[in-house]
């Protein structure tokens, strides 16, 4: 397997050295593969990581578009690195840690089950689905983001958990109405508990990063326990979850209309939250132009993906073309400012914040103090997704 990976990487690397591909989606994906990113390993050690799941989702879309077996092989390699032959998930994964993040690799297992028919992938998916059966929840029914953060729901967790939950239900339990109801509730509870109300300071009509239903966290608001700021990547995760789960959730289930309404509510406000000069989004959307704030690349790419997909599929109407125009302007900025051609023919991706959490104050100073990374997979994968949608224009 290691020899295959090395050969694959060198082959991609050599082709990149000849000429830049015409597709930014291909260029970004091939560059990440050449660096060995998103392959289920961290410094050679197996690791179940949500950004690997995000990247594998992007590679799946590229494989389905271009029929390039390189991408399917890389997905298989990454999944095999974290799943034993008997279907046991390893790579530091432990069900009783009750963290939603690892579940983002679950759609890869389900995809490979559909492609290969190998039972190991169903076993692995069953393990993740079993976690949801006992995962702790708030009194309202929202999954805790992590066991170590009691009663906290984060927007991030919707992308990590519900895309898998929906795909599993669709593929293996399509008649499980209770599951479809629960998936709908996860989106709805998160929206209701984090959406900015009309009297909120710095009101963008968007969603705060998360909330503490128990109102214990130092950052929790008096009304719903929400955090104080709208962080771009958290909202980006939620927006991508909306447009992806709408592909999966049956149109006959009431939840489809619930998610559609949320998407249609948020989309024009996402459009309006761009910086008017650059066209992209601030790290802390509720504090545009404040000293220390900056344009952040992963959230911006996620918004471009979600906006373009929503309009393309007719889930959001764009009669004056302003939504697509905003996404195109943002994409142009991204390509001009965050794509860095490398001398070896690959490309690098800049300005992705490494982390954003609610384990501390969750305020403006916290978000802007987090380091920025180059070639952070969370940002590269989002750029691949954004590029796939942009290239469909």
Structure description:
- Helices cover 53% and strands 5% of the residues.
- The strands form 4 sheets. Strands 1-2 form a two-stranded antiparallel ribbon. A two-stranded antiparallel sheet has the order 3-4. A two-stranded antiparallel sheet has the order 5-6.
- The model is unreliable at 1-18 (pLDDT under 50).
- Helix 2 (24-34) packs antiparallel against helix 14 (377-392) and helix 11 (297-312) runs antiparallel to helix 12.
- It is mainly alpha-helical and 393 residues long.
- The chain contains 14 helices and 8 strands.
- A hairpin with a 2-residue loop joins strand 1 (41-42) and strand 2.
- It has helices at residues 2-18, 24-34, 50-66, 69-80, 106-116, 119-134, 155-172, 177-194, 232-245, 254-272, 297-312, 322-337, 364-369, 377-392; strands at 41-42, 45-46, 152-154, 210-212, 339-341, 347-349, 352-353, 372-373.
- The radius of gyration is 20 Å and the shape is globular.
């Amino acid at each position: 397997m290691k020899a295959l990976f090395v050969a694959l990487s060198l082959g991609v690397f050599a082709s990149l050295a000849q000429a830049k591909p015409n597709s930014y989606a291909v260029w970004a994906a091939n560059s990440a593969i050449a660096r060995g990113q998103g392959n289920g390993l961290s410094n050679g050690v197996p690791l179940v990581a949500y950004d690997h799941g995000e990247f594998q989702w992007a590679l799946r879309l590229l494989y389905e578009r271009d029929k390039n077996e390189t991408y399917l092989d890389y997905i298989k390699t990454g999944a095999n690195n974290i799943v034993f032959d008997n279907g046991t998930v390893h790579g530091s994964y432990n069900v009783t840690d009750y963290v939603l993040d690892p579940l983002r690799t679950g759609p890869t297992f389900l995809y490979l089950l559909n492609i290969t028919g190998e039972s190991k992938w169903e076993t692995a998916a069953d393990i993740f689905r079993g976690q949801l059966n006992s995962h702790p929840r708030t009194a309202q029914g929202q999954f805790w983001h992590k066991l170590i953060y009691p009663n906290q729901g984060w927007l991030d967790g919707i992308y990590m958990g519900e895309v898998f939950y929906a795909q599993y239900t669709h593929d293996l339990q399509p008649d499980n109405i209770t599951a479809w109801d629960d998936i709908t509730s996860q989106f709805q509870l998160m929206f209701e508990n984090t959406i900015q109300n009309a009297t909120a300071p710095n009101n963008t009509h968007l969603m705060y990063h998360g909330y503490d239903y128990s109102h214990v966290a130092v950052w929790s608001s008096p009304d719903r326990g929400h955090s104080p700021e709208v962080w771009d990547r958290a909202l980006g995760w939620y927006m991508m979850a909306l447009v992806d789960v709408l592909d999966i959730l049956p149109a006959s289930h009431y939840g489809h209309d619930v998610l559609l309404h949320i998407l249609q509510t948020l989309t024009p406000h996402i459009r309006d939250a761009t910086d008017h000069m650059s066209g992209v989004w601030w790290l802390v959307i509720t504090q545009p132009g404040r000293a220390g704030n900056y344009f952040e690349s992963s959230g911006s790419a996620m918004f471009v993906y979600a906006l373009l997909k929503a309009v393309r599929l007719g889930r959001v109407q764009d009669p004056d073309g302003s939504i697509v125009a905003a996404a195109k302007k943002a994409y142009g900025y991204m390509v001009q400012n965050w794509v860095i051609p490398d001398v070896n023919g690959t490309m690098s991706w800049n300005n992705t914040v490494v982390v954003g959490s609610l384990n501390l104050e969750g305020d403006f100073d916290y978000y802007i103090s987090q380091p920025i990374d180059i070639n952070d997979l969370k940002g590269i994968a989002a750029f691949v997704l954004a590029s796939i949608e942009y290239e469909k224009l």
